[in-house]
Amino acid sequence: MIKTCSLLLLQALLVLTCGSAFAERADKNKPLNLEADAARYDDAQKVMVAEGAVLVTKGTMMMRAARLEQREDKEGNQFLVATSSAGGRVLFKQKREGLDEFMEGEAERIDYDGKADVLKLSGRAVMRRLRGSTVADESIGNQIVFNNVTETLSMNGAPAGAVAGTAPQGRVRMMLSPKLDKAAASVPTGGVPAPALKNSETAQP
Q1: Residue 138 CB: number of other CB atoms within 10 A?
Q2: Whose CA is closest to 18, among 96, 116, 104, 100?
Q3: 80, pLDDT greater than 50
Q4: Could you tell me the residue range of the domain that residue 143 belongs to?
Q5: Could you tell me which residue, 168 or 68, shows the higher pLDDT?
Q6: CATH code: domain of residue 30
Q7: Residue 199 covered by a domain
Q8: What is the pLDDT of residues 106-147, one digit of tens each?
């Protein structure tokens, strides 16, 4: 009961802190563009698998991974599963709705549900909200899920050693900055400089 109440409180806090929406809602209906070393597509099953330095863009959303599986349902909704090589990370970045801010994440695996508009980061997961080059908010855990429709973010604690030196066993770690109005959101204030995303899968642009 205490754990459930804590999770609900955390979700409410994140809604109040992060503002009106996590990501550009128009991205859901934008075409998916992909680059990779190799790819195969099964039209009958509506499944595509890409491998090797995979780069995916969908509107303002960007992902880099070692392997990506994409499938499409009968209604045209897209579902992505991006995975890293051993010791690597999948990288993610997306602009926030109506603000000059970005959401940035990294994890061993990232699942995107285009129908529900939900992103799930699993394994050494880190999620940041950037104002310019400054980290405004940062969340660390074993699994992070954010829903762009309900505007909520939920987290599960990391097992021992999963996020070395950052999150104790079974717990999550967060840093939250005060909410700014839209006029001030583009001015970096407070927080700490954003670390450069590094990925062993591929060189960064």
Answers
A1: 21
A2: 96
A3: yes
A4: 2-193
A5: 68
A6: 2.60.450.10
A7: no
A8: 999 999 998 998 999 999 899 998 988 889 889 998 999 988
* Residue for token pair 């039209």: 43
Assess if residue 202 is contained within a domain. no
In sequence order, what are the residues at sequence separation of 6 or more whose Cβ sits closer than 8 angstroms to the Cβ of residue 196?
204
Q: Is residue 200 included in any domain, yes or no?
A: no
Stated pTM of the model? 0.71
Q: Which two tokens stand for residue 92?
A: 């993610």
pLDDT reported for residue 196: 54
The total domain count for the chain is: 1
pLDDT in the model for residue 51: 97
Distance of alpha carbon 173 from alpha carbon 126, whole angstroms: 10
Q: What is the pLDDT of residue 82?
A: 97
Tokens 């080059």, residue? 133
3-class SS letters over the chain: CHHHHHHHHHHHHHHHHHCCCCCCHHHHHCCEEEECCEEEEECCCCEEEEEEEEEEEECCEEEEEEEEEEEECCCCCEEEEEECCCCCCEEEEEECCCCCEEEEEEECEEEEECCCCEEEEEEEEEEEEEECCEEEEEEEEEEEEEECCCCEEEEECECCCCCCCCCCCCECEEECCCCCCCCCCCCCCCCEECCCCCCCCCCCC
Note whether 33 and 8 are within 8 A (CB): no
Is 91 among the domain residues?
yes
